[in-house]
Amino acid sequence: MGGKRVTNPAGSSNPLRGDVLRVLGVMKVATADQIQRATLPHLTYRHTTKSTEAKRKEARTASHRGALADLRKHGLTLDGGSTRTGERLRLLTPQGLEAASYELQRPMDEMGGTARGAGRTGATHAMTVNETILALLRPTPDLALLESEPVEAQAAAQAVVEAADGIGTIASYATEVPLPATGAWGSAGKGGAQADIVVCAPQAGVPLLFVEVDNCFEDAALIAAKFDKYMRFFSRKTKDTDGTERPMWRTRWPAPEARHGDTPHPPVLLVFHRLGPRNPSRTVARLKNLTWQHWQGEACQDFTTYDGKIPIVATGLNMLREQGPEGEVFHRFGRSGFQPLREAIGNPRRDAADARRRAEDERKEAEYKQQLLAEEKKREREAQRPICTRCGGRFSDERWSEVQWQGAHMNPQLCGVCKAEALREAAEAERQAEEEALAARQRTGLLARLLAGTEDR
């Protein structure tokens, strides 16, 4: 135990230090509070009996601050200044970034850089990016670890567990991802964009989502220029490892199955946080007008297609925190009202139309199979249908049934017509036989009388 304390004086565990590296590998710069909420959310509902929020935060982040201290001793993390509210910022060293790539199982060329200098101005944008990740991720507490806590704390944690799920795991997220319009992934040229967040969670129904965060300081024209860069990046093609030319983004991230005439680019989510002076509602209204050529679809029957367009969706950070990805708080440019995130970035009307078409195709296929089966049964039955030994014709259904139910005395070797003919012939033969018998009897009687008359004489 003593050796362990020398190596890690704060006594942190390997799993806890691994959690810290994974979070900082994604967020780049974060507070102990954010790291705790991302990795061990049940701690948020402990220490509720302490007198102030500051004391509660100090208690619930103690383990992570200890892990950060141990990682700093190993040269993997640094203190990077403070937020505008006075919370200490933590970031990775180059060695820490390499260690985080191992924990995330992510290549180093996809890790981005360290966040040196982020804390000099309070890292306001980085903090909003982190809060957006937490709002999308929605880590849920382990209720079994809260059994000894007050009823009120357990109830609050239970409400979070019962709320809608978030999207993916911390490994599903990346930040400050370059999207080169020129150059390569590792050395992007001019004219490209840099995504604040990239979400890749196919298992959660979000194959690929780019996120732009705005603290309401930027005007609509500046944000619109980002979408011009996104379009240049999405439209860029390169040769894949098999020699096939594909959009560059498809060589790095999974792509939804393409639909003929309706293959949109990946969606972009705008998350507004009202820190600055600009009204996000007015920004969104103007932004729609400035970017319509990128998002406007084409009406087709009872749905809209978005071939070569960017699904642009907007929401507010506070609404996202409260309701999560399942809440109807996402506005898709070109649509009215609000939808859950998965519907907003998708095309539910097209999905419904495709489902109806598939159901109709399945119905027709089932009918066709039933028809084939009926025809096969009919052929099998026809092969078993008896053949008349007299005329060579096949029995009618009525005659076949008659033979099956009434037995051999019904002339089972003859069809109905031949049976009737046979019965007629038999009746005629019987009539003739009776007539002949009658004639014979008459002749016999006459002869008898003649003989009797001879005897009398």
How would you sum up this structure, described in words?
- The chain has 457 residues and is an alpha+beta fold.
- Among the domains are: 1-121, Orthogonal Bundle (Arc Repressor Mutant, subunit A); 164-346, no CATH class.
- It has helices at 2-7, 14-27, 32-39, 53-60, 62-73, 94-104, 124-137, 151-162, 220-235, 280-295, 317-323, 341-345, 348-384, 397-406, 416-456, and strands at 29-30, 77-82, 88-92, 173-179, 193-201, 206-214, 237-239, 245-247, 268-272, 298-300, 303-305, 312-316, 331-332.
- The longest helix is centred in the C-terminal third of the chain and has 41 residues, at 416-456.
- It starts with a helix and ends with a helix.
Helical content class: 40-55%
Poorly predicted tracts of residues: none
Strand content is: 5-15%
Continuous helix count: 15
Please state the structural category.
Answer: alpha+beta
Strand order of the largest sheet: 4-5-6-9-12-13
**Main sheet specs:** 6 strands, mixed
Outline type: elongated
Mean pLDDT: 90
Distance between the termini: 158 Å
**What series of H and E elements makes up the topology?**
HHEHHHEEHHHEEEHEEEHEEEHEHHHH
Could you tell me the radius of gyration in angstroms? 43 Å
Instruction: Tell me the total number of β-strands.
Output: 13
Which short descriptors sum up this protein?
457 residues; alpha+beta; Arc Repressor Mutant, subunit A; six-stranded mixed beta sheet; three-stranded antiparallel beta sheet; 14% strand; elongated
